[in-house]
Specification:
heterodimer; A: 403 residues; alpha/beta; Rossmann fold; 2 domains; 5-stranded mixed β-sheet; 15 helices; B: 445 residues; 5-stranded parallel β-sheet; two-stranded antiparallel ribbon; 7 strands; 39% helix; 7% strand; globular; pyruvate dehydrogenase (acetyl-transferring) activity (chain A); THDP-binding (chain A); pyruvate dehydrogenase (acetyl-transferring) (chain A); thiamine pyrophosphate (chain A)
Chain lengths: 403, 445
């Protein structure tokens, strides 16, 4: 895997800065980051500009002026295929299930119903009822069952219909999923993937809108990743299934209908790697999952105001990719964290601590962490909106940082 | 027939139900029982709902019948025939000489080992919570000695003897208790977390009920391997051991449901020793007859005298056979008793000394000894030789554990994560998270 990253990175050093090449290109020539292959190590160098334009076109106006020349340069026929995020997840899952017969899915309504968010649609008729198992409503037990199956040789993908329901499975996730590899002295591995949608949706009420990535963060022995685009959703799904560690994959309820063009070739992303969304110079903005889109919207405003923020989608919530983050901090010396998790004990809080501990000398200003309010998500639309971080707050924070 | 040694005793007098003699229960459904499901590819319950539950009515009927042979409680035709014969003659015992010695050795090993644990604990060689199994050896021996190496066992914190019965060397278990690197889990598990991949012991769980879903998962793997991976000869069975307290826990019920629903090859073994630390089973449970909870989910519920290793073995044969043939799970309630307190820290003041004395008179090891003498299966000398051998084995285990090294500092962060890449090696060859305190990769066991 590392070798693949190396090759791809080295092969296209120019495109490594190619996300928003236009008015940044001269800056990249002098940027020390430019020479490091790790940034665009995901084999999307040819398509990166296309990705951004398609994604940008769907969701937010482009943060930079034009990309006309790049679109033309990439060729007349567009490579890859377009799909929505839940379809990307399904594609990743299907490919892994075809590749390895030990991969199975279990969860509520994953089989005949096709998954409450259609991530497993069509898999049960294809692979059978035992491989795509409809479980009764017993989260703790079927999560434990998945863990037992993982210990004895299968590779289950356990779906929580909503990440909040996995609170019922916390006993199994914490005690067994996380700890058994260590407690058994390394004898048993638990290659399970626990996935499900979380985060705040559209007025779904408090219990269906939980932002609980941080609840799982302290559990020793599990890896946490959060996907945000169809491209990284599929890649992370595949990587999580192939990993020998137990991985918790956080999806977001509102991101399932994102459309993007992804490569036809098979690709697997690195679980522990962060994604450079937009290289920049002035400030490092660290974010993940849905807040990435709020950040990119704020970046639009910031760019018009003359700022040049660097946006990194940290993707890996445990462990943090301090390598990418560190390089960014060493360049910009200012950090803003934007997250959907809650302020107290959230992912941002522990990321702030990690950055302060490791990169204190490189910081010119205090780290600002924008998180959602420490309230149960209210039902009312206005209140729900104010619970989360909105683009104007991000703009204000960057302005404050860069004073 | 040495009937007296094996006749079930009544429960405590305050219990208003009829005597729970194991002979009165028709524990397993005969082949033509209406509740037996027809095999189908549909992965779910195919039973039709019926208003009267045949199991309870049959049991009520049978309670009034004159007792059959008190020694065995299985209804499969072969065993019934064998039993009716042995009722009249002493010349057809349940076990052979070799089997008898094997069972005896296993139970004595369990007993001696646990006694040695107590000694070592009070000498300060092991710490924490140590839960001893004295008195319950018949359940472990009766069940686990029928398993193959590939079959899985899941236990609770009272797992030393399950580990020993499954084949984990006494040395490894003792070292683990002493917290040395040579322990079966490298000293990282301890008394309550015995694991062995080689012997398919899936643990040792501290929270009650936590292991039952894991056992269900292991049984699921067995079914999956047979049906999806097409390994036709995969008939591995899983045994889940747990206590009476666990039978009020949600995970127990949820797993009974799933196991019966998908006909998983698992046997749920309840070691009902009537006490959950200081909580009497009768004070905690609305219906104390745990075996009844099996038919509620569509699986046979069996009650057996857990102080009698032969009875347990016969029931176990039937239950494990059912699972191996793909007929689904069984719930076996073993009435047993722990002679010591809940753990070595428990002063054990709540239990009635009369109750303790009553069960002490039904000590499974003495009972088996008596049975073997009366059926001329072993001589005094042979059994004494076994006793001596086990004493030496346990002494050797203690010596080995004493001499083993304590874990080094470097072991602390090993094996937190299984993936040998540790955490994403960056292009510079170092961990991406740049925090060597976080994990140090994996290590060979």
């Amino acid at each position: 895997m590392a070798a693949m990253l190396h090759t791809i990175g080295v092969a296209s050093p120019v495109a490594s800065g190619g996300v928003f090449p236009d008015h940044q290109s001269n800056k990249f020539a002098v940027s020390s980051l430019h020479s490091l292959p790790v940034i665009r190590s995901e084999a999307r160098s040819n398509l990166s500009s296309l990705h951004e334009s398609y994604r940008a076109g769907k969701l937010i106006a482009k943060a930079v002026a034009t990309k006309g020349e790049n679109a033309a340069a990439s060729g007349a026929s567009k490579p890859g295929h377009e799909l929505l995020l839940f379809e990307a997840l399904r594609e990743g899952l299907e490919e892994e299930m075809e590749r390895d017969p030990r991969v199975c899915v279990m969860g509520e309504d994953v089989g005949h119903y096709g998954g409450s968010y259609k991530v497993t649609k069509g898999l049960a008729p294809k692979f059978g009822d035992l491989r795509v198992l409809d479980t009764p409503i017993a989260e703790n037990s079927f999560t434990g069952m998945g863990i037992g199956a993982a210990m004895t040789g299968l590779r289950p993908v356990i779906e929580g219909m909503n990440m909040g329901f996995l609170l019922l499975a916390f006993n199994q996730i914490s005690d067994n999923c996380g700890m058994l590899h260590y407690t058994s002295g390394g004898q048993f591995t638990i290659p399970a993937v626990i996935r499900g949608p979380g985060g705040v949706g559209r007025q779904l009420g408090a219990e269906h809108s939980q932002r609980l990535e941080s609840y799982f963060q302290s559990i020793p022995g599990i890896q946490l990743v959060a996907c945000s685009t169809p491209y990284n959703a599929k890649g992370l799904m595949k990587a999580a299934i192939r990993s020998e560690n137990p991985v918790v994959l956080f999806e977001h309820v509102l991101l399932y209908n994102l459309k993007e063009r992804i490569p036809d070739e098979e690709y697997v992303l690195n679980l522990e790697e962060a994604e450079m969304v937009r290289p920049g110079e002035h400030v490092t903005i660290l974010t993940y999952s849905r807040m990435r889109y709020h950040v990119m919207q704020a970046v639009k405003t910031l760019v018009n105001k003359g700022y040049d923020p660097e946006v990194i989608d940290i993707r890996s919530l445990k462990p943090f990719d301090l390598y990418t983050i560190g390089n960014s901090v060493k360049k910009t010396h200012r950090v803003l964290i934007v997250e959907e998790c809650m302020r107290t004990g959230g992912i941002g809080a522990s990321l702030t601590a990690a950055i302060n501990e490791n990169f204190h000398d490189y910081l010119d200003a205090q780290i600002i962490c924008l998180s959602s309010q420490d309230v149960p998500t209210p039902y009312a639309g206005t209140l729900e909106e104010w619970t989360l971080v909105q683009p104007p707050q991000i703009v204000a924070a960057v302005e404050q940082l860069c004073q | 027939m040495a009937a007296t040694a094996f006749s079930a005793s009544k429960f405590t007098q305050s219990f208003s139900l009829n005597s729970t003699r194991s002979v009165d229960r028709p524990p397993l459904f005969p082949a033509s029982h209406p509740l037996k499901t027809t095999p189908s590819s549909f992965l779910g319950s195919t039973r039709k709902l019926s208003l009267s539950s045949p199991s309870s009515s049959t049991s009520r009927r049978r309670r009034r019948r004159p007792s059959r042979s008190p020694a065995v409680v299985a209804v499969s035709e072969v065993v019934k025939e064998k039993k009716s014969k042995s009722n009249v003659s002493l010349s057809n015992p349940l076990i052979t000489n070799e089997e008898g010695l094997e069972l005896y050795e296993d139970m004595v090993l369990g007993r001696s080992f646990e006694d040695m644990c107590a000694q070592m604990y009070y000498r300060g060689k092991m710490f924490g919570f140590v839960h001893l199994y004295n008195g319950q050896e018949a359940v472990s021996t009766g069940f686990i000695k029928l398993l193959k190496q590939e079959d899985c066992v899941v236990s609770t914190y009272r797992d030393h003897v399950h580990a020993l019965s499954k084949g984990v060397p006494a040395r490894a278990v003792m070292s683990e208790l002493f917290g040395k690197t040579t322990g079966c889990c490298r000293g990282q598990g301890g008394s309550m977390h015995m694991f062995s991949k080689e012997h398919n012991l899936l643990g040792g769980f501290a929270f009650i009920g936590e292991g039952i879903p894991v056992a269900t998962g292991a049984a699921f793997t067995s079914k999956y391997r047979r049906e999806v991976l097409k390994e036709a000869d995969c008939d591995h069975v899983t045994l889940a051991f747990f206590g009476d307290g666990t039978c009020n826990n949600g995970q127990f019920f949820e797993c009974l449901n799933m196991a019966a629903l998908w006909k998983l090859p698992i046997v749920f073994v309840v070691e009902n020793n009537l006490w959950a630390i200081g909580m009497s089973h009768l004070r905690a449970t609305s219906d104390p007859e745990i075996w009844k909870k099996g038919p509620a989910f569509g699986m046979p519920g069996v009650h057996v005298d857990g102080m009698d290793v032969l009875k347990v073995r016969e029931v176990a044969k039937e239950a494990i056979g059912r699972a191996r043939r793909g007929e689904g799970p069984t719930l076996v309630e073993c009435e047993t008793y722990r002679f010591r307190g809940h753990s070595l820290a428990d002063p054990d003041e709540l239990r009635d000394p009369a109750e303790k004395a009553r069960y002490a008179s039904r000590d499974p090891i003495s009972a088996l000894k008596k049975y073997m003498f009366e059926n001329n299966l072993a001589s005094e000398a042979e059994l004494k030789a076994i006793d001596k051998k086990i004493d030496e084995l346990v002494e050797d285990a203690v010596e080995f554990a004493d001499e083993s090294p304590l874990p080094a500092r470097s072991q602390l962060l090993e094996n937190v994560f299984a993936d040998p890449r540790g955490f994403g090696i960056g292009p510079d060859g170092r961990y991406r998270c740049e925090d060597p305190k976080f994990t140090e990769g994996t290590a060979q066991v």
